[in-house]
Amino acid sequence: MHIHILGICGTFMGGIAAIARQAGHRVTGCDANVYPPMSTQLEAQGIELIEGFSPDQLLQFETMPDLFVIGNVVSRGNSLMEAILNQGLPYISGPQWLGEQVLYGRHVLAVAGTHGKTTTSAMLTWILEFNGYKPGYLIGGVPLNFTVSARLGDSQYFVIEADEYDTAFFDKRSKFVHYRPRTALLNNLEFDHADIFADLAAIETQFHHLVRTVPGDGLLVVNGEEVALERVITRGAWAPVERFGQDLENAWSLVSQASDGFIVRQHGKEVATVAWAPDSGVMGRHNQLNALAAIAAANHIGISPKDSARALAEFKNVKRRLETIGVANGVTVYDDFAHHPTAITTTVDGLRRRVGKARILAVLEPRSNTMKLGVMKAQLPGSLMAADKVFAYGASTGKESLGWDLPDVLSPLNQTEAGKALAFNDLDALVNVVAQEARPGDHILVMSNGGFGGVHQKILNAILA
């Protein structure tokens, strides 16, 4: 079958492309921005890429593709999509294609939640791989224990990062309702995606739709510390529920250790100890909970906590999760995907646990749709309080510009310490100020869910200049 994918260069759709190619299909695709590393990865797998969404590309094929797979970046008015509709060509969403053609009949382990989906999915996939289960997987990032973000796999097991964002312009259900998991891991739940959800209750409803799809002999692994998830489960659960969290009242709990590792407890009994590799890049309480959840999910398919702990001792995290980019004159620069205030808080906390009293200079770009709408702006100062200095960037014009006053929002930080937070609308100016402020022993934590104009390397270069 010839599949043509619209929006192929996103992490999720690129993963679908790789899986379809591994399944033996001819795969082509197009996107508005075709560039490395995704373009390089796809082309290396024999996938032909076309720049843009011109309907003229339909004339390039000797025979018309058998099916068009549509990413949620595509909306009505897209010229290629309009041509597909006008010509009555067959199309389907990415999640639905994946659910019907890849996940059907397999034991799906789905990882859902506002935060930590990518890291927890990578942990769970690595646990299965380490223990010989040869899983298929699709992860919204590049797990460093693997060379690609998705694969078809050689067993009945498939691990998927289960996103609550909508499926496509013609299917406004959350992506994860297409996955039909047998093991569903609900990591946490907060308000996010303000561009498509009116409030937290609307997201809770989508999570309950996911819960409704889990069979009676499946398992729900649920964060016992999340009030919103408790409301979801209270609405009805037809599969067993195992909760995880810090406290002994949960089926799965933990005891933190000074090394940032932890002891795993199952029904109050110590059953394993997780010790991260020194170069893993894994740190912070949030990652302890991510790992605990992965251990509980793996236990459902027969992998003991001790075997999971052995796997996690060799876990290498995911790119853009407190990833060390470089060191210049004794200053370390990190990259992290954090963009929601809760994720910013846990990321800063995780780095603080690792570096102790050393200075942390936080460099932030609040560019997610939710942040640009200003829904979470009041929580931003509190999320950055544990950093020593804050440098934030907000474009003043263009589609990435903020709809609110960044200096004003950050002003509470300067009330606690004069000059603690600075706001910029010029990226070069931000780079120069950060480089001048940095001194040996400092840790510069860059946080954004985008490329941030290559600011990481620019800062390193400026420090060395």
Structural class: alpha/beta
**N- to C-terminal distance:** 54 Å
What is the overall silhouette?
globular
At the first level of CATH, the class of the largest domain is Alpha Beta
CATH topology of the largest domain: UDP-N-acetylmuramoyl-L-alanine:D-glutamate ligase
CATH architectural designation of the largest domain:
3-Layer(aba) Sandwich
Q: Main sheet, how many strands, which sense, barrel? A: 7 strands, mixed
Model regions low in confidence, pLDDT < 50 over at least 5 residues = none
Tally of contiguous helical segments: 15
Number of separate domains: 3
Number of strands: 23
Chain-averaged pLDDT: 89
Strand percentage = 15-25%
Strand arrangement across the biggest beta sheet: 8-7-9-6-12-13-14
The percent of residues in helical segments reads: 25-40%
In CATH, the homologous superfamily of the largest domain goes by the name: Mur-like, catalytic domain
Structural Rg = 22 Å
Write a concise keyword list for the protein shown above.
six-stranded mixed β-sheet; UDP-N-acetylmuramoyl-L-alanine:D-glutamate ligase; Mur_ligase_N; cell cycle; 15 helices; magnesium; Rossmann fold; globular; seven-stranded mixed β-sheet; single chain; 3 domains
Describe this structure in words.
- By secondary structure, the protein is α/β, with parallel strands linked by helices.
- The chain has three domains: 2-93, 3-Layer(aba) Sandwich (Rossmann fold), CATH 3.40.50.720; 105-312, Mur-like, catalytic domain (UDP-N-acetylmuramoyl-L-alanine:D-glutamate ligase, 3-Layer(aba) Sandwich); 323-464, Alpha-Beta Complex (Protein-Tyrosine Phosphatase, Chain A), CATH 3.90.190.20.
- It contains 15 helices and 23 strands.
- It has helices at 11-22, 38-44, 79-86, 94-103, 117-130, 200-212, 227-234, 285-300, 305-312, 341-355, 369-372, 380-383, 406-416, 427-437, 455-464; strands at 2-6, 26-31, 48-51, 67-70, 91-93, 107-112, 136-138, 150-151, 157-161, 166-168, 171-174, 183-186, 219-223, 241-244, 252-256, 262-266, 269-274, 323-328, 331-336, 360-364, 389-393, 421-424, 443-447.
- Strands 8-7-9-6-12-13-14 form a seven-stranded mixed sheet, with helices on both faces. The protein has a six-stranded mixed sheet with strand order 18-19-23-20-21-22, sandwiched between helices.
- Helix 5 (117-130) packs across helix 8.
- The chain starts with a strand and ends with a helix.
- The model has no long low-confidence stretch (mean pLDDT 89).
- ATP binds at residues 113-119.
- Keywords: ATP-binding, Cell cycle, Cell division, Cell shape, Cell wall biogenesis/degradation, Ligase, Magnesium, Nucleotide-binding, Peptidoglycan synthesis.
- It holds the Pfam family Mur_ligase.
